[in-house]
Design a protein that fits this description.
The complex is a heterotrimer of chains A (about 280), B (about 325) and C (about 400). With about 280 residues, chain A is mainly α. Chain A has helices spanning about 5-35, 55-60, 60-95, 100-115, 115-130, 135-140, 150-175, 180-185, 190-220, 225-230, 235-245, 250-270, and strands at about 35-40, 45-50. In chain C, a hairpin with a 2-residue loop joins strand 5 and strand 6 (about 145). Classes of the chains: A mainly alpha (about 280), B alpha+beta (about 325), C alpha/beta (about 400).
Chain lengths: ~280, ~325, ~400
């Protein structure tokens, strides 16, 4: 009973810590281990014998390089679109709107999260129908046509889905910005545009990076939106989905690609202080 | 012609009249202090001069040009903020160069001026530190250098010493005053600290309820307060009014006598010492006079020693002062 | 129950041996089927089925042959549906299911994987009424042991939207040829087994390749099939595996032609006839499905009752009619609501089925009996399909 506070604290956090280790690190480890096993090619059952064949298959087939590039293009596009939309939104919410209306605005930004993911994506699907969809109705009078299902539809759908995850950190970052810093910039002769790009953006940068971690990683791993809006277009998640039932080790090897990309990404943004913003 | 002419300036926030008809002329090269309690309107006046607040009515002229509704970036004034408002993502040098970079001053000139300003505030060698790596006093100096380097016609200082500890504050008061003499720029200094105002200013404008209560030299504000508010806010007030005034002074009205002008002698107004405070170089007494008024008396400790002082509590004494020390307020 | 426990133990020992020896031969069968008799033990069975095979009223309140079974036997039934045979294999291997309706391309993988147990047909009274040409077939019988009861069969039809594809197609060429009038609005089944559909078309259009069985492709034949799929890709709007999504796409007009199931056409034609469904002249791939029992089931009595129930003439008639396929029970034909159902689906015509190529799992040893070449096994099909889809 007479234990030191340190020991008490340790015992208090040991359970969540164990959970963290088992669930997160453990599952990553399991993923890695699975990727170096063989399968029985007929019954699809995993055989626990070491092989590098899965990685050879992944890296020797140009299709998987292409799909990795496509996935990166989508994840980066989604992130950029979210940044471009979220910055003015967050700036308006944090600095222009009256403090009283801010909770309402935050609630509005969050509303897309209240509905089921599938409902939202199926709604986008009906909008993207090449001939009868809402987008076609909207664009055809202007002489264009709906992009139909494919990469563009996926980028739009994912940008819509993940936007709140970008707006919220940037909003929090901008709200923390003291008024006096903006006043100081104007006082020193900077017009609003200069203040925005010279002061607001650099100070909010870690928050933007924090938001991008969400949008980027969520996009990297998505496969359901791609199935529903992608037409014949596929991303890494779909490769995993297509293969996990028949060739689990191969699917695991493919699944390691986004994990590695995320580790590289997190490593490269670590210095910005974005991780303190999460 | 005054450098700054403020006429009938007014600003309300909702139903609260923050500034309610202020007229003020400020001369070139002057160190003027806007003194008052919080909510008196002094900071709002400063922010309107800077351009951060838009006046409801009235005009502000700078060197004869109407700047009432100009945005901050078009005014030839610079501000030192209470919280310094340094840009956290820039190092000290970049902070100081910011204004010149905005105005597209060539790089070498910019660098040279910034280093000189840094030297002026005695922070040479700190140019590559981030604001978060500096102490409060150092940040204060950077903020000062950042504003002064632009050579504005007016420097606005919004309670810049408020966040510093006493010793540093006193040191900075002296430095600020020296700096002002050196650069010859008009300083408008906002504070709620009357001692600070008295030490540094050429003139003081005492604010209350959105108006200027008195505008004068420090000595005049201190010794000849125009009204009860000024008397009470600046220095310790001994107010004598009503029946007590008639009994003691033989006059009607409200009068003030500064504590250090009162002598404890054998003759004069009789009373009892209620409290004694030993302050080191001086001792402060609270005396309750038989006439029904309490006065604060300040005595130099040149004659008594600390031991004697303590034994004075409860002693019956008499107070006297020179007639010219009495000053009628309002 | 005693036997069930025994089997579990056997499976466990087998699994252990497998682990220790690293041996890939995992057949732990041969210990015989359930001896019976089937007792009135209450229990719960988890049923893994193609959509439309085990209707409990949740799709359409009037379509329900699960609830009567539950009421009659006291067995509780939970139904889980799947979209592709590959998904079925994966779910079944994960465990937790007692009975499954498996197509030929799933059943062998499950049998050799030790996931299924032999079935004692003497305990299933309705078995005698099954069409003879469905009994003891390679996809439901291994080494003389029966592994289940046939449910029904059908062809993967060519479906087209009436009025959008003119003239009404009678050949698969409309989904394969670059000059297709439906370019950009074609769909195909999103599974490696679809490679066989390409092989079926090649059997008719490129006889020089010498394909006789679309599931027995040597490397040259396989490469030709993949080339055909690549040629098809620009025509495709979407690949499908989820049939509700497929239905929506047809209704919206973004898909007008492609491989389909009769049940999909039936749903689309629910209110008015919007699509046609034909077996094209080249023949078609198809399925012959079998109800089978998990080797790990703990509700063996309920499982046997379910197998008997599902091929009862009237239930088999209902299920076949709802799904749109030929029933397996010969007596079901007299009980369908539409008296022409069996005629419509050619249940009793042996000729019709001669160019329907039931799904099977391709193996290295050619299924068409050739011994001079190696065939491309299904694992390679899957790899090729995955690579193709991500090209």
């Amino acid at each position: 009973m007479q234990r030191s506070p340190k020991a008490r604290a340790a015992s208090l956090i040991s359970l969540p810590l164990a959970w963290l280790l088992i669930i997160y690190i453990g599952s990553l480890f399991a993923l890695f281990i699975t990727s170096i096993w063989k399968i029985d090619t007929f019954t699809s059952k995993v055989i626990r014998e070491f092989t590098l064949q899965n990685f050879i298959d992944v890296f020797s087939d140009r299709a998987y390089f292409n799909v990795t590039i496509r996935t990166l293009v989508v994840a980066i596009s989604v992130t950029l679109i979210c940044v471009l939309i979220a910055i003015p939104m967050a700036f308006f919410m944090a600095r222009i709107a009256k403090p009283k209306s801010r909770p309402v605005l935050i609630a509005l930004v969050l509303t897309p999260l209240w509905a089921s993911y599938l409902v939202k994506i199926y709604a986008w699907r009906t909008m993207f129908y090449p001939e009868t969809g809402f987008l076609n109705w909207l664009i055809s009078p202007l002489g264009g046509s709906s992009p139909g299902f494919g990469m563009i539809a996926v980028i739009i759908g994912l940008s819509y889905l993940w936007l709140p995850y970008m707006v919220l950190p940037i909003y929090a970052g901008m709200e923390k910005l003291p008024n006096s810093v903006l006043d100081a910039s104007a006082d020193l002769g900077a017009k609003p545009g200069r203040t925005f790009f010279g002061v607001v953006l650099p100070i909010t940068w870690p928050a933007i990076i924090a938001g991008s971690i969400f949008t980027f990683s969520l996009s990297m791993g998505d496969y359901i939106t791609v199935q529903i809006l992608g037409g014949t277009f596929q991303m890494l998640g779909n490769v995993v989905y297509q293969n996990f039932s028949l060739n689990l080790p191969f699917a695991a090897a493919v699944a390691l690609i986004p994990v590695i990309i995320m580790i590289i990404y997190l490593g490269s943004v670590r210095k910005t202080g974005a991780l303190d913003n999460l | 012609m005054a450098l700054i002419e403020i006429r009938n300036l007014a600003k309300a926030f909702g139903t609260v009249k923050a500034v309610d008809g202020v007229d003020l002329d400020i001369n070139s090269g002057e160190f003027i202090t806007l003194l008052g309690p919080s909510g008196s309107g002094k900071t709002t006046v400063l922010r309107m001069i800077a351009g951060f607040e838009d006046p409801d009515s009235g005009t502000i002229k700078l060197s004869g040009q109407d700047i009432t509704h100009l945005p901050p970036y078009d005014r030839d004034v610079n501000t030192v903020f209470q919280d310094y408002a340094l840009f956290p993502h820039m190092d000290v040098l970049a902070n100081i160069e910011y204004g010149m970079r905005v105005k597209k001053v060539p790089k070498e000139e910019r660098r040279e001026k910034a280093l000189k300003a840094l030297e002026q505030v005695r922070l040479s060698g700190y140019e590559n530190r981030k604001p978060s790596q500096l102490s409060g006093g150092q940040r204060q100096r950077v903020a000062l250098a950042r504003a002064l380097v632009n050579r504005p016609s007016v420097l606005l200082l919004d309670e810049p010493l408020g966040a510093l500890d006493l010793k540093l504050r006193q040191q900075m008061q002296i430095e600020l005053k020296e700096l002002q003499r050196e650069v010859g720029i008009t300083f408008i200094f906002v504070t709620h600290d009357q001692e600070e105002a008295l030490t540094m200013s050429d003139r003081i404008a005492v604010f209350d309820k959105g108006r200027i209560q008195q505008l004068d030299k420090p000595a005049a504000i201190y010794e000849k307060p125009r009204n009860e508010f000024v008397a009470g806010f600046v220095g310790v007030s001994n107010l004598i009014s009503g029946a007590a005034a008639e009994k003691l002074l033989g006059k009607k009205g409200t009068f003030t006598v500064r504590p250090e002008k009162i002598r404890i002698e054998g003759k004069g107004a009789a009373g009892v010492i209620r409290e004694v405070e030993y302050l080191g170089p001086a001792t402060r007494f609270l005396v309750e006079l038989d006439a029904g008024v309490r006065l604060v008396v300040l005595q130099q400790n040149s004659e008594q020693s600390a031991v004697d002082v303590e034994s004075l509590r409860g002693r019956k004494i008499a107070l006297s002062w020179d007639k010219e020390s009495e000053y009628q307020v309002s | 129950m005693r036997v069930g426990k025994h089997r579990k133990l056997a499976a466990l020992i087998a699994a252990g041996t497998l682990l220790l020896a690293g041996c890939s031969s995992s057949s732990d069968e041969g210990s015989g089927a359930y001896a019976g008799p089937v007792k009135d033990t209450p229990g719960t069975i988890n049923v893994l089925a193609w959509p439309g095979y085990a209707e409990d009223g949740s799709t359409d309140p009037n379509v329900d042959w699960v609830t009567p079974f539950e009421e009659a036997t006291g067995c509780t039934v939970n139904v889980k549906t799947y979209g592709t045979s590959d998904e079925a294999v994966q779910l079944m291997q994960g465990g937790g299911y007692d009975v499954i309706s498996a197509s030929g391309d799933a059943s062998l993988r499950l049998i050799y994987g030790g996931d299924l147990q032999p079935v004692n047909l003497d305990l299933i009274p309705n078995y005698v009424d099954i069409f003879d040409n469905l009994k003891d077939r390679p996809w439901n019988t291994v080494d003389g042991e029966n592994y289940g009861v046939p449910h029904g069969r059908g062809a993967n039809v060519l479906q087209y939207t009436i009025g959008k594809v003119n003239p009404a197609p009678t050949s698969w060429s409309v989904v394969w040829e670059p000059n297709s009038p439906a370019k950009g609005k074609v769909t195909a089944y999103d599974s490696a087994i679809y490679i066989a559909d390409a092989a079926v078309y090649l059997m008719a259009t490129k006889p020089e390749l010498g394909i006789t069985d679309p599931y027995a492709l040597d490397q040259t034949q396989f490469d030709a099939a993949m080339a055909l799929l690549t040629q098809q890709k620009p025509l495709i709007a979407e690949y499908w595996a989820d049939y509700t999504k497929y239905i929506g796409a047809v209704q919206s007009g973004s898909i007008t032609v492609g491989t389909s199931w009769q049940v999909i056409a039936n749903v689309l034609n629910g209110e008015k006839a919007t699509v046609g469904a034909v077996k094209p002249v080249e023949g078609a791939t198809g399925w012959s499905d079998t109800w089978m029992i998990s080797s790990k089931t703990e509700a063996i009595d309920c499982a046997y009752k379910w197998l008997n129930h599902i091929i009862t003439p009237d239930v088999n008639a209902q299920a076949a009619e709802w799904f749109g396929e030929a029933p397996a029970n010969s007596k079901a034909c007299a009980l369908t609501a539409n008296k022409d159902h069996c005629k419509l689906y050619h249940a009793e015509e042996t000729d019709y089925w001669s160019n329907v190529y039931y799904w099977k799992t391709p193996t290295e040893e050619c299924l068409d009996g050739r011994t001079d070449v190696m065939c491309v096994p299904y694992a390679e099909w899957v790899k090729a399909w995955s690579s193709f889809r991500n090209q």
